[in-house]
Amino acid sequence: MTEESTHPPLIIEFDTPRLRLRQWRESDLAPFFALACDPQVMEFLLPLPTRADSDASADRARALIAKNGWGFWAVERKDTGEFIGFTGLNVPMASLPFSPCVEIGWRLARASWGQGFATEAARGALQVGFEPLALGEIVAFTAERNVRSAAVMERLGMHEDVAGAFEHPAVPEGHALRRHRLFRIGRAAWQATRSASE
Q1: What's the CA gap between 53 and 56, in Å, rounded?
Q2: pTM exceeding the 0.85 threshold for the entire prediction
């Protein structure tokens, strides 16, 4: 065993102009559960019905960041120090038609909607994915009716793979949220989008 393999990976944390994306803390658990109890936040997601489920979800995110150095980071406002949700990169647990893949995703408290936070945090996550992690492609997917998340995906420069629309295997058959839209962005397209905005 080499010396490098005995050390855990360096945990990536980073700032955007208004946000800090970081490892999860115990103090994030209560506001994360409050977010999961908001029916508008969870409208296009299968809800987390108990505090134990919510805490377990946060613990999984924290463990994956500890293991890999990256994942679904806790998002904190720099001006207030307030936890407002999560954004980041993830290898989906479900076997999807386009697996293996790395997805980008986010979930923010409703009070933080409409201020560009999701787009800002996700742009930072894409930069991590394409620069230090050197990923070739990042995908995003959302329930067919979730126009808000799809709009963020488009603002990020992602393009919808219409032929890639799929039935999400983790959603029960016949459920209104089973049909999902798929968006993709490759490193070259991301670099072009980034250059155009500079």
Answers
A1: 5
A2: yes
